[in-house]
Write a structure and sequence with these properties.
Bound molecules: nicotinamide-adenine-dinucleotide
Number of helices: 13
Structural class: alpha/beta
Strand order of the largest sheet: 1-2-9-6-5-3-4
Helix content: 40-55%
CATH architecture of the largest domain: Up-down Bundle
CATH topology of the largest domain: Dehydroquinate synthase-like, alpha domain
Distance between the termini: 52 Å
Length: 359
Amino acid sequence: MVEPAVTVYAGDQQYPVYVGRNLLTDRALWEQYITTAQVLVVTNDQVAPLYLPPLKSVLGTFVLEVLPDGEEYKTLSSVQRLYETMLTHQFHRDALVIALGGGVIGDIAGFTAATYQRGISLLQLPTTLLAQVDSALGGKTAVNHLAGKNMIGAFHHPQAVLADVQCLDSLPARQVRAGLAEIIKYGLIMDAHFYSWLEDRGGQLLAQEYDILHTMITKSCCYKAKVIAQDEKEAGQRGLLNFGHTFGHAIEALLDYRGILHGEAVAIGMMIATYLSQTMGWLNADDVARVKKLLASCDLLLPLPPEITPVQVWEAMKIDKKIWRGTQRLILLRSIGEAVMCDAPPKEQVISAIAEMQV
Ligand SMILES: NC(=O)c1ccc[n+]([C@@H]2O[C@H](COP(=O)([O-])OP(=O)(O)OC[C@H]3O[C@@H](n4cnc5c(N)ncnc54)[C@H](O)[C@@H]3O)[C@@H](O)[C@H]2O)c1
């Protein structure tokens, strides 16, 4: 039987993350988790034709909700639709929600499971690289509000995460790159050896070779699990995972979340944070060149979109949720493999670092 690649310890809960092939059809694995007759599978219209058939072959009866694809559906209306379905089928507190899809489906299904009858069981079946290395574990669930992204949410951990690497075969290359940005982030903030390992493989990282993907996903989940074990609710250390994200979120918001993927915005944000780390005297020019080179080899060395200015990014950063007790907090690099929290960074220096990314 397949063994967990990683175990997440979060407060008094713990759960496994499986990484491998054929997990969607692994009957022995499923039998451990399908302990109720009330199962809701939540997916979207892109993923359903691809991965519902194998899942159907192992699940018994279940209720299915296929949502439209897209971040614009990560709303309370979608959650309401799932509540209605569960209420119509008289789902009890022992019901199970299965999220089959990328981070959007994981967040919608996760928030629904967190709030239906004060919380029911959840299984995460992430089908994008980003979801497998980041969003499916850690317990953050949320939907968007007109006032902002992820404004309504809850912490709710899954019973297990099943990251079937084969699902990535159908993932568009651009989505693979977006997931790679988060993987590079883990190397930059937590492990210089892993960063070198990524550098050694360079452009090969995009080739979607099974062994490389398996290693990257497992390692990334290990790093995330380590941070969660120390700081489940983001009171301190978990904030380090936001490296590149404060800039990235500002860029996404300024573009109205259109035309840029989260991972792409994070890649731009990581490069800005790298320049700022050099300005602060922590990184040298060689370190900066290394970051540039790895991002370039993964097609992630992207310019600041020409329609936005550095000052606009600075202003947009103020509405990010990562403002800490009224102070702007940025995550920077003390060295490659070690992140540091930097409170109230000087405005002029931040704007200059953002300007480095202009074409
Ligand atoms: N909860 C968290 O901790 C957390 C962390 C990071 C990001 N997020 C959220 O995750 C979301 C982004 O997730 P994402 O990048 O996975 O985007 P996504 O869920 O929108 O998926 C990207 C695209 O790929 C398609 N897709 C999914 N799996 C596929 C597959 N195997 N083959 C082909 N196409 C496939 C989707 O239908 C979609 O069109 C954002 O809403 C973000 O806020 C949450």
